[in-house]
Amino acid sequence: MGSSLQRFQSVLRLGGSARDIMKTKLVYASRCLREEYKRTLSSLFDAFGSVNTLLHDGCRVLVKPNVNFPTRERGVNTNPAIIESLIQLLMDSGVDEVAVGEGSGIESDTSRIFKAAGYDEIAEKTGVRLIDFDSSEKVKLDVPNGLALKDLEIPKPLLDYDVLVNVPVEKTSICTTVTLCLKNLMGTLSKRYKVKAHLSGLSQAIVDIHKAVKPELNILDATVGMEGFGPISGTPKRTNWILMSRSAVELDSTVAKLMGIEPSDIEHLKLASEQGLGTIDASEIGLSGIDLSKDSSRFAVPSSTPNVPKGVYLSLGETCRNCICPYNVAIFRIDKDQRLPDLKGLEILIGKNAKPSGKRARTLAIGNCCKPIQDKVDCYVPGCPPPGILIGDSIKVLCGIEKEPTRYMRIWYELMKQIAS
Ligand code: SF4
């Protein structure tokens, strides 16, 4: 099944309009109620043209979920029950092998996170292999027309499998507004290239990854997502959808709209469409099974209004939300620990042309835009943007809340050294 007539019938069956068949960019969606993951995925594959559209005899499939935190709390990682249902469907269709692979954050132990998040259990039940990308052999891959990243360092299994299926969960993100299909591919980079991506301009780096690593299929877990200070400190939000598309860009822009966010306000999506990786223009994307005007449910996005605690002086140059939001979450976490009084006398500088006042006891500059003043401040945190954890830990060390550089800081700067050498 794959002809336009069959696709036309599928679109109509899932509730799309006849006009949608004229559009070549298709996103399929299905409500997922009562945890009927296998039935929902199966109906999406039917609309898509059956699971066999993607697969061939002897095919080996690598599934890439988003598994970054050691928890089973809903909305944080891709729901393991969805991955289990997907594995069963793939196996029923006669593929040779299915594996699940992930490389979590720069300080994370992916194998431990797999276990804590419930992935070990699904591997045991289904017999699939779990691949910790961090302990896999690495290979270099050129990025055609790469702007921030000219090459990637990725785990070799990514090249060994025939089909890559990308299965993120729907979340907001302090560094990139949302983390969906495109951002999920950051998990395919080695730890030092994750740091390199932040240093080289994260939004463009995300686009560059997609120029070299292209999933054959994207499935988005929008059953329970996360809003607010995602991807770690946000609030779970239930929306009960699963969506599927060949195109990560078109699926992400559809889901952004579903979350009440304009795709053109998301830097990496805008760049991806400008660089020809897909469209973010809703009028060009054929939807089946969903009506965005009725089904959207607004997600709270991380606030881009800077939070300035009492006693702190904030010097803003020309800045953007991608630096302000991680700064805000760093302050939010320090506030949660009731250590805000320790920040008294601190000056924080963010953005191009920010200038130290020369009147404060301690100065901290955040982001690549502040590189020209790095020698004029007590602490400079590089990155475009730097991760919120790095900003928070740097503030804590500068203000004496932490006596020594934290584990995260030590790993980050060691990886930075490796990139430079
Ligand atoms: S370093 Fe500059 S451009 Fe990059 S996120 Fe920060 S303010 Fe924006």
What can you tell me about this protein's structure?
This protein has 421 residues and is α/β, with parallel strands linked by helices. The chain has two domains: 4-295, Rossmann fold (3-Layer(aba) Sandwich), CATH 3.40.50; 313-420, no CATH class. The chain has helices at 4-13, 37-48, 80-92, 110-116, 119-126, 157-160, 181-184, 191-200, 202-212, 248-258, 267-274, 292-295, 321-336, 388-398, 407-420, and strands at residues 25-31, 60-65, 97-102, 129-132, 138-142, 151-155, 163-167, 169-173, 177-179, 217-227, 235-245, 285-288, 313-316, 346-350, 362-366, 379-381. Strands 1, 2, 3, 4, 7, 8, 9, 10, 11 and 12 form a ten-stranded mixed sheet that branches. Helix 8 crosses helix 9 (202-212). The structure holds iron/sulfur cluster. Iron/sulfur cluster (SF4) is lined by residues 319-320, 322-323, 351, 367-369, 384-385.
- Low-pLDDT residue intervals, each spanning 5 or more residues: 1-15, 18-22
| Distinct small molecules | iron/sulfur cluster
CATH topology of the largest domain: Rossmann fold
Strand fraction band? 15-25%
Separation of the first and last Cα atoms: 52 Å
Can you name the CATH architecture of the largest domain? Answer: 3-Layer(aba) Sandwich
Q: What's the main sheet like?
A: 10 strands, mixed
What's the short version?
The protein is α/β, with parallel strands linked by helices and 421 residues long. The chain contains 15 helices and 16 strands. The protein has two domains: 4-295, Rossmann fold (3-Layer(aba) Sandwich), CATH 3.40.50; 313-420, no CATH class.
